[in-house]
Amino acid sequence: MPLVTSKEMFKKAYEGGYAIGAFNVNNMEIIQGIIEAATETKSPVILQVSKGARNYANVTYLKKLVEAALIESDLPICLHLDHGDSFELCKQCIDDGFTSVMIDASSLPFEENIALSKKVADYAHEHGVVVEAELGTLAGVEEHVSNEFGSYTNPAQVEEFVNRTGVDSLAISIGTSHGAFKFKGEPQLRFDILEEVSKRLPGFPIVLHGASSVPQEFVEQINKYGGNMPGAKGVPEEMLREAAKRAVCKINIDSDIRLACTAEIRKYFTEHPEGFDPRNYLAPARKAIKEMVKRKIINVLGSNDKI
Ligand code: G3H
Ligand code: 13P
Ligand code: ZN
Question: What pTM value is reported for the model?
Answer without folding.
Answer: 0.96
